[in-house]
Amino acid sequence: MGNGVNDTTSLFNVEEFDTELVRGALEDVFDALEERGYDPVNQLVGYLISADPGYISSHREARKKVTSLDRVKIIEVLLRNFLKETK
User: Fold this and answer.
1) What is the predicted pLDDT for the residue at 1?
2) 74, 82, 76: which is closest to 22 by C-alpha?
3) Radius of gyration over alpha carbons of the chain, in Å?
């Protein structure tokens, strides 16, 4: 076409974007909880089951980060990644 315009269509993968968003937030929360001496897995499970943000420390804005995500989306991403790894 010669006009310098790229005629290809880019695809945006929402699932991949969600996964990276959740992964980044969970890694930050995990590290913050560990720094405070908590078991991050137990604390995150408590939060995901109960929706009580009290399970997550406010250290390094961990509570703010995890509560900004939809709990169902977090569980969905965790399950998808678990199933991918076990196949």
Assistant:
1) 47
2) 74
3) 17
